[in-house]
Amino acid sequence: ILMVDEKGKNMKCLTFFLMLPETVKNRSKKSSKKGSSSSNSSSKLPPVCYEIITLKTKKKKKMAADIFPRKKPANTNATAVQQYHQQNLNNNNTIPAPNWQGLYPTIRERNAVMFNNDLMADVHFVVGPPGGTQRLPGHKYVLAVGSSVFHAMFYGELAEDKDEIRIPDVEPAAFLAMLKYIYCDEIDLAADTVLATLYAAKKYIVPHLARACVNFLETSLSAKNACVLLSQSCLFEEPDLTQRCWEVIDAQAELALKSEGFCDIDFQTLESILRRETLNAKEIVVFEAALNWAEVECQRQELTATIENKRKVLGKALYLIRIPTMALDDFANGAAQSGILTLNETNDIFLWYTAAKKPELQFVSKPRKGLVPQRCHRFQSCAYRSNQWRYRGRCDSIQFAVDKRVFIAGFGLYGSSCGSAEYSAKIELKRQGVILGQNLSKYFSDGSSNTFPVWFEYPVQIEPDTFYTASVILDGNELSYFGQEGMTEVQCGKVTVQFQCSSDSTNGTGVQGGQIPELIFYA
């Protein structure tokens, strides 16, 4: 018997004499004739039969989905399968064709056919607010397997035998997204319905779908939606999402405060933002954002947006704005003329700016701490040589990637190696050729080998594990310092930054040497 494993390799070879009845009879006759010599010769006879046995190793049992990987059906059934898939998108459809089960090799695919299908449906949901409802079919067993809430609803001690269930607080699109996950094991999220889907997943205790919604929100988080998501994350009790929102709001505070979404937050979230110590924004921007919110809140409360009503809806939150910390010009030309302050408040704040004996104020007078920028220096030394590193309007560029989300606030640049000089710098940040941020500004260098910060108008959000291109075009004194002994990887606190050469660089800058010695960022 030749024993082999599943790959055809020999495991063990054993030889047995399998004696058939006729063979035994013939050999017994020969043995009587030849005597003792027959025993010696019989031992050398070849085996009568060979059999190959496959030895199987212990493996995890395969499911139908593993045996039949998901693929496009054969051409003969393609039309029928596409027809059934289209029926899933519509309501109140049944499958008229016989033996439709034979088109799908796995239980998951057969189960998915029942999604949003009236075939064998034993319950219906009327989903959505009055005037915007949609009637959706369901199957109690499938729903109970996917949600403990549905299990209690249909099979619990207090289960009600209703053929139709009204759900006015969930949007139809969000309910369908949840049903698709329960029936098909597929997560299909969209930016305009993900919050409603998260609400549905929380309501019916579908934790894996809820986690997917939170991950989707985190990856799509930006200054435009951070304030709204902050409000929702507190409502849904998602601390990780809340923390991510605060990171964006702190670093890109002015963009977040100027976004349309800021006006949609609730009063509690407004107070928490106005109290924020690390808010990285000018106080005049905070003040203007609060007034914009008050105007929209008046509309929500069906009030005329007068100065009195704006102050009324702001309430005590007005005193969370640190008006005394504004620049005097910002206060005189902005807050003092807004009308939102009383005459006494305006006079007291002017005295706060100018008088030696400052009056007591209801407003917070301590400046916000903001965020401390971090610097990633990629060169180990710098140098200068005569007739080297001139600019002539050419681009110095480098590519970089980080392992955690950060916000690039600007670059640290070298200055003149021939004494003090002023430079004009056009800085730019791109991802796959798309400009994410740029700014044109001037800076003064004192002739030292120090770096000098040049800032973007707003910090630029940088996602992890993606290469971005940092570029600068300098105009000024033609001789400058330049970096040497560049590093391909730099550890800055908890952030790891990797560098590689950029094809946009036309003035000699690369990983080993050149310009753009520092990235300035918030993390």
Outline the fold blueprint.
Blueprint lengths: L1 E4 L4 E4 L7 H14 L2 H6 L9 E4 L8 H4 L7 H15 L17 H6 L10 E5 L6 E5 L1 H7 L1 H8 L8 E4 L4 H13 L9 H10 L3 H13 L6 H11 L2 H13 L1 H6 L8 H9 L7 H18 L6 H8 L13 H6 L9 H12 L19 E4 L1 E5 L12 E7 L3 E8 L7 E11 L2 E12 L6 E11 L5 E8 L6 E5 L2 E4 L2 E7 L16 E5 L1
Parallel strand pairs: 1-3, 4-6
Antiparallel strand pairs: 1-2, 4-5, 7-18, 8-15, 9-14, 9-17, 10-13, 10-18, 11-12, 11-14, 16-17
Helix pairs in contact: 6-7, 8-9, 9-10, 11-12, 15-16
What is the name of the CATH topology of the largest domain?
A: Jelly Rolls
CATH class identity of the largest domain: Mainly Beta
Q: What is the strand content?
A: 15-25%
Number of DSSP strand runs:
18
Alpha-carbon distance between the two ends: 68 Å
Which class of secondary structure composition applies to the elements? alpha+beta
| Helix content estimate | 25-40%
What is the residue-mean pLDDT, rounded to a whole number?
83
Quaternary assembly = single chain
Main beta-sheet strand count, sense and barrel state:
6 strands, antiparallel
- Radius of gyration computed on alpha carbons: 37 Å
Basic shape: flat
Name the strands of the widest sheet in spatial order.
12-11-14-9-17-16
Count of individual helical segments: 18
CATH architecture tag of the largest domain? Sandwich
Subcellular location: Cytoplasm
Keywords: Cytoplasm
Main location: cytoplasm
Protein name: BTBD3 protein
